[in-house]
Amino acid sequence: MRRPRLKPALRRVARDPRTLQFGLHPQRASVLHDLEPSVLRVIEGLDGTRELRQVVADAAKEGLAEEHARTLIGMLLQRGVLDDAAFPPPLTSLSLAERDRLQADLDALSLHPETVDGGAAVMERRHAAHVRVYGAGRVGAQIAVLLAASGVGNLCVCDTATARPRDVIPGGLGWSAVGAPRHDGAVASARAVAPGINAWTSASASHPADRAHHPALAILAPVEPLDQILVADLAEAGIPHLLVSAFEGLGVVGPLVQPGVTACLRCLDLTRRDRDPAWPTVSARLGGYPAGEVACDTVTATIVAATAAGQALSWIDERQSIVTNGTLDVMQIWGWRRRSWSVHPQCRCSRNQLH
């Protein structure tokens, strides 16, 4: 910690003359009690303009011994209310307007208790990430736009089907996209919110099975029944992939598959077969599962897209994703449920994990 600064995004409230609260949400709030006026002045003076040694020296003028001043700084750091202002600002390659747009996301990232760089490292990781979205319907197009708006710097959207009026949705495809390939509309929407993004369509994309640069994450948001050949290609290439679906007014996010490490989509299929002997027949008659966007209403599609984008960002940010070896059942009413899945012993991926 070189230049301690109270996190600008963390609201401070004086509960009384000797009690200071950091943060408002119950999961963020931290309260300091019985503070002397001199200690309060030292805390309020942590604006990031002074080196730590100068902060300690100035605290001595307020009557705090060096040991007490350093203990105070350490306690504030432990409680997750300090940044180190010595870190350089992120995303200097972007325009001032785009950096200003991303400030709210940086503020949110900065609030992680172990983050002291104002969220800069995570935002730079997002900016360097390459994500590929397969499917640009009511859910997939929104996911693409949300990722672009959240700072993902490289985005490929793959969906050559023609956009229809039923694909139009707030935050996704607009009316101007109708009649053109869906991926064109999704890329246009992503660029509209993030002009500096490097975004392209499947017309310029590499195939998962070739040796070109692979994405850090592929997101499967099928509008039609899921393409099992694509799933096999992603697994064979070792590309992490997240399945997202919304149908019959409900949604499912997950699993996020790490090939050779976690349960794969084939594992889920085999588990369903074990529980329901008729499952192979049902799946075959659907043409694949999930069956695509069937009765995918606007609100459900939006909730599912936001949840999926959040899980994708958790992966990019190198933080825990709750849909690794799991799925989230998403619905409009409060009744979400997480299901756990295991590697199936008869799946090829279980053999791959042994090597």
TrEMBL record:
GO molecular function annotation: ubiquitin-like modifier activating enzyme activity
Stored InterPro entries: ThiF_NAD_FAD-bd (IPR000594), Ubiquitin-activating_enz (IPR035985)
Residues of the THIF-type NAD/FAD binding fold domain: 120-347
TM ranges: none
Originating organism: Spongiactinospora rosea
Pfam families: ThiF (PF00899)
UniProt lineage: Bacteria, Bacillati, Actinomycetota, Actinomycetes, Streptosporangiales
Listed name of the protein: Thiamine biosynthesis protein ThiF
